[in-house]
Amino acid sequence: MATKKEIYALELTPVKKAEDIHFKNPPLAFFNAVGGEEGMKELMYDFYDKIYESDIAHFFPQDEAEFDEVKFKNSKFFIQICGGPKVYEDETQGMELNEYMIRIHDDFSITEKSRLEWLGTMRAALADKAQHVDIGLIQEFWDYLEKFSKLTVNTFADGSTYYAAYTQAKED
Ligand code: HEM
Questions:
Q1: Residue to mutate (ligand 1; options 59, 103, 151; most atoms within 8 A of CB)
Q2: Which range of residues forms the domain containing residue 143?
């Protein structure tokens, strides 16, 4: 079990340009505790509903059918990255899952500010949909998101761009 207060206390740390990122993929125990494929889908659909109310809504498709497609693919990704069924496998064009995830974000100018908004939105979705999950498991899921999301930031405050190499993703 987790309280909203505990979930909102999950920590955010700042990105540093070009640093290596050490992270672990989220545990299968989180996937099971959140409610398997159905539970994960519910969490991610809630996340995207909140994205549309957020400061980063403009990054995402405004067309409803395209938006549904992103919601659906996003849910499949999170099912697989937690060690659940490999339902996202066919999307990765032969790349390793995390490598594909870094590269798919290259098409968007993602700043630290948008990363923090993305994480804040996810934290709100967890507070609404994951209170039945043990806080330790939520923490592990969060650690993956908080760290991995640094590799999606490609546009910096001084106006420069830097696209993370897959070799900077250090899966411990
Ligand atoms: C842990 C960090 C993140 C993960 C795991 C993640 C995961 C994903 C996934 C699974 C998709 C769908 C890919 C597909 O089409 O198959 C996606 C798309 C996208 N993500 Fe992320 N994301 C992360 C961080 C971010 C951040 C920080 C932003 C900031 C704005 C962002 C913006 C987007 C956008 C704009 C799309 C594409 C929407 C479209 O297809 O038009 N993501 N992401």
A1: 59
A2: 4-9+35-171
Q: Are 142 and 130 in contact (CB under 8 A)?
A: no
Structural domain total, the chain:
1
Backbone angles phi, psi at 131, to 5 degrees: -65, -20
Does the Cβ of 148 fall within 6 Å of ligand 1?
A: yes
What average pLDDT does the chain have? Answer: 97
CATH number of domain containing 106: 1.10.490.10
**pLDDT tens digits for 4-34?**
999 999 999 999 999 999 999 999 999 999 9
Taking the C-alpha atoms of residue 82 and residue 114, their distance in angstroms, rounded to an integer, is 24
Distance between CA 104 and CA 91 in Å, rounded?
11
| 3 SS3 class | coil
